[in-house]
Amino acid sequence: MKRFHVHLHVDDLQQSIGFYSKLFAAEPARREADYAKWMLEDPPVNFAISTRGAKPGVDHLGIQTDNAEDLAVLKARAETADMALLDEGQTTCCYARSEKHWVTDPQGIAWEHFHTLGNIPVFNERESTTRQAAACCSPATPSGKPVGIPVKSSCC
Questions:
Q1: Phi and psi angles of residue 10, each rounded to the nearest 5 degrees, phi first
Q2: Does residue 146 lie in a domain region?
Q3: Is residue 153 domain-resident?
């Protein structure tokens, strides 16, 4: 199965958890001091919110797969979309260990394709020594802004 993924940055996590819990008629599947995630079945959506962004709004979109084979298919599709692909391989983010890659659409919206391998007790293992304020999972510069993965030169 594949699941659509949306990650939003919010100013007030508790207020947003209350709103989305009512909107989805469900409590978050995961709740942390800076993060909450709903794993909805109808429709199948991995909807996450966090207070880690510079401003409220959509951080990134994506597709989560249940297996490595589906992730490989998504990677092949992304590679044919005439967009540069950033392959992170196995990494940690959003309290999970995942295999993932990224593309950025022509409008600059980051798309993440990932297969979750397991939960971890911290937001990101790289933060174990320092806390970063960068965007949640999207590749970021030191300023916290998502990295624009440039369009290949073959694109119009």
A1: -130, 155
A2: no
A3: no
pLDDT one digit per residue (tens) for the chain, 156 residues: 899 999 999 999 999 999 999 999 999 999 999 999 999 999 999 999 999 888 899 999 999 999 999 999 999 988 888 777 888 888 878 777 888 999 988 888 899 999 888 777 776 777 654 444 344 555 543 333 344 443 333 333
Domain count, the chain: 1
CATH, residue 104: 3.10.180.10
Q: What is the pTM of this model?
A: 0.73
Beta bridge partners of 2: 65
Show the domain range for 64: 2-128
- Give me the amino acid identity at 148: G
Give every CB contact of residue 25 below 8 A, 6+ residues apart in sequence: none
